[in-house]
Task: inverse folding
């Protein structure tokens, strides 16, 4: 990841600024998007609808970034689905370390309001989406604005049912986002060193 040349480095586009922080719909107030690199998914009223997509996401993306700092996957589901979500968690747990998977229940209205803040024109179906959404530390939705496979070039979410999309787009975009933070950290340290050198 860090072998990317700085001259060739371009930031990952913001497709929607300042979405609602998930802390606003979390009754426990233990979960937040701010200061994290987050992938958000919507499980819906039938958590099995996107089960194969979640397994794809776990294998192709989550496992690659498990050791990265401030990384998480947040799976949002409606209240009342707790038993089915526990079964799903156990199935995923058989294959992976779940420490950075977060399952969050909320009301139908709050889930819809949260999703609406993404400004994505594809509606939820029974509170579910086949897409995974990438959100940065400032709670902006990231994606692509020149995506060859999208009719208007705008990519808001990544299709979890497509291994090629997860491998070739989401995984790469998470890497770019982390490199963006790495480059900014490096620049800050360089500026501090420069100021020190000139006595500021």
Result:
């Amino acid at each position: 990841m860090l072998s990317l040349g700085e001259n060739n480095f371009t930031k990952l586009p913001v497709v929607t600024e300042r979405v609602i922080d998930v802390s606003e719909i979390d009754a426990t107030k233990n979960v937040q998007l701010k200061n994290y690199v987050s992938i958000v998914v919507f499980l819906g009223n039938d958590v099995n609808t996107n089960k194969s997509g979640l397994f794809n996401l776990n294998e192709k993306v989550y496992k690659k970034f498990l050791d990265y700092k401030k990384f998480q996957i947040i799976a949002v589901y409606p209240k009342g689905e707790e038993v089915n979500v526990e079964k799903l968690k156990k199935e995923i747990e058989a294959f992976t370390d779940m420490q950075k998977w977060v399952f969050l229940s909320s009301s139908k209205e709050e889930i819809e309001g949260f999703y609406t803040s993404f400004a994505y024109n594809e509606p939820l179906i029974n509170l579910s989406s086949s897409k995974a959404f990438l959100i940065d530390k400032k709670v902006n939705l990231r994606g692509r604005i020149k995506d060859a496979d999208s009719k208007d070039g705008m990519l808001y979410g990544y299709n979890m049912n497509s291994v090629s999309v997860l491998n070739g787009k989401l995984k790469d975009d998470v890497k770019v986002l982390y490199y963006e933070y790495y480059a900014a950290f490096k620049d800050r340290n360089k500026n501090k060193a420069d100021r020190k050198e000139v006595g500021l």
